[in-house]
Design a protein that fits this description.
The protein is an alpha+beta fold. It folds into 3 domains: about 140 residues, no CATH class; about 140 residues, no CATH class; about 70 residues, Homeodomain-like (Arc Repressor Mutant, subunit A, Orthogonal Bundle), CATH 1.10.10.60. The protein has 20 helices and 8 strands. It has a 4-stranded mixed sheet with strand order 3-2-5-6, with helices on one face. The chain is flat, with a radius of gyration of 34 Å.
Amino acid sequence: MLKQKLQQSLLQKLSPQQIQIIKLLEIPTMMLEQRIKKEMEENPVLEDVDENRIEDDAPQETDLTDDNAGSTNDDEFSLSDYLNDEDIPSYKLNISNRSKDEKHEDIPFSVGSTFHEHLKAQLGLLKIDERQRMLADYLIGNLDEDGYLRRPLDAVADDMAFSVGIETNEEELELALKRLQELDPAGIAARDLRECLLLQFRDKSASNPAVDTARKIIRHHFDEFTKKHYDRIKGRLNLSDSQLKEALDVVLTMNPKPGGGFHDPYNHTAHQIIPDFLLEYEDGQFQLSLNSRNVPELRISREYSDMLESYAANRENSSKQEKEAVAFVKQKIDSARWFIDALKQRQNTLMSTMQAILDYQKEFFREGDLSKLRPMILKDISEATGFDISTVSRVANSKYIQTHFGIYPLKSFFSEGVQTETGEEVSTREIKRILQECVGGEDKLHPLTDERLMEILKERGYPIARRTVAKYREQLGIAVARLRKEL
């Protein structure tokens, strides 16, 4: 049975301007210029102050003859520009030199060959029958970006049956894969690292004792090799330290990712960092500013403002079409004002947040000494600025600051704290820096264990548990002592 009833509820909704501010906060300076240009393309009311200042300052040629007295500028807008647009037939707004049934194809821009195209070009030179060529071509499409075939051959056979309607089996695909593994670069189309390295031994001289030993290590003692159990390898192959080192040097010359080093022109991207903040330090004083070098300053076009004023003066005599045109222009002006206000609020939020970070980490920003970096979390800056933690997080994300000692991401200034034996609180970044220094300067024949690293930190006044040392080591991407061992 249906019943009707009244119910009150509280809902938190964001206004369009609030959503716009949130989105603008997230993007860095490098993308802000593109975002502003996009808005200017969509909203004709917005204009660049600098560009129009140049036009305004340019000398105007004026003809004072009676024939031109009272003439108007042809570039000015009027309501007539927005009237009767819908009355224009569509065929007058389009140019068509082709039939509607004609297929349109873009001419591709050729910049080189991709990794897979490189393999397919070589495949065309192999003396194999058409069926083997078809199977090998399908296998090329299953190779990952490192050049490996990660999928089982029986799964590839099932895919071929369902997707292209070709019945095959694992044995036939194995033969096609063997031919594919003859292509360049060496080691391509392997199913694991061991097979990849063994394929690369084809190009090595078999008469070289170090090469022969290296092949035996990879073929028969691969697990010991990956776990760096060198003593076991020496005992089973009866090798000296020098013989083992020569064999390992041969393996180190090989490429574990034969497809990864291939230049793909379609995936080539250049990563450029443009700082969002500029910090100068002179005579003991900080000067913080936003990097707005390429960001245009916006304003509302005077032509559109004058258009609304003209309409207000003659509102009684306006037609329905003029009222609709004015409503459109007013909506664009309101949208432009929202956008300009959102940019100003973004600027204020960024500056307030960065100033709070600067005040909190003033000792670090003076010299760039990581040991002076204080423990700081988002909540600390949130309390200092009065902004929500999510707002501070958006400001810190993907933003950079240029200082007199380098460019740093804002996120690098946030870290947890560790208490020393004297009761002083230091940043975990200082602990990680010490760990990196210790591992970087260790004897690779006898690398430092987590237990020994814990003792070193304790000697320097940082009483940290061994499991915490292991956690920081993993965060730094440092392997355990056994895997760092070298001969």
